[in-house]
Design a protein that fits this description.
Length: about 80
């Protein structure tokens, strides 16, 4: 499996709590679709969030986001350096 970074532009005024709830919703969808969510980070100030998911393809990550109704700017395959 590969690691994919989901890039999210957060809506203006989104709170940290709303970000956490959104990630929890995605995490549930990813698990249901056989993917392994690895975590997420956000910058409320810059308005972006990034989630990492272990999956076979970027399309699987997109489908899990769609099923959870979580907007997605891009999916990028990345690698762990450590």
């Amino acid at each position: 499996m590969a690691i994919f970074l989901g890039v999210h532009k957060m809506p203006p005024g989104m709170t940290q709590e709303e970000g956490k709830a959104s990630y929890a919703k995605y995490k549930e969808s990813a698990i249901k679709n056989g993917l392994k969510p690895l975590g997420a980070v956000v910058s409320i100030e810059k308005g972006f969030g990034y989630c990492q998911t272990e999956a076979e393809s970027a399309d699987q990550v997109r489908e899990a986001h769609e099923a959870a109704q979580i907007p997605l700017e891009d999916v990028i395959e990345v690698m762990q350096l450590s």
